[in-house]
């Protein structure tokens, strides 16, 4: 049941039409709370068999800790970011599903794998430069991305 709830949560968030992390915050909190509840319910089912209950507790301990930590981080995230005067207004354009080490992200197209493999990074020249202090073309990556997407349909290198 735990795994199914996590899969449903991931699927709901990943397939959603919502485009902002704030839009997903309550869904995520509810889903993570459900996972914690299922973990506790699972242990209650083994009340009569102490050996099995202990085995199950050991088995779900790591998952329980991670789920609890994720819920705490999500709950406190807005407060933490506001302390640093950071707005949580990140749009979601791709689901960043990291794959095993030394492989490309799952959303990379196959043709991009070949392009990236052939690039000689020593000859790479940037199209746009971002500097937070304002000493270059743009102060933020977000503004640079918007500008490059509006003005061109070619690939850009942003440093």
Automatic annotation (TrEMBL):
Residues 17-73 form the Pectinesterase inhibitor domain. It comes from the Eukaryota. GO terms for molecular function: enzyme inhibitor activity. Pfam families: PMEI (PF04043). This is Pectinesterase/pectinesterase inhibitor 45. It comes from Gossypium hirsutum (Upland cotton).
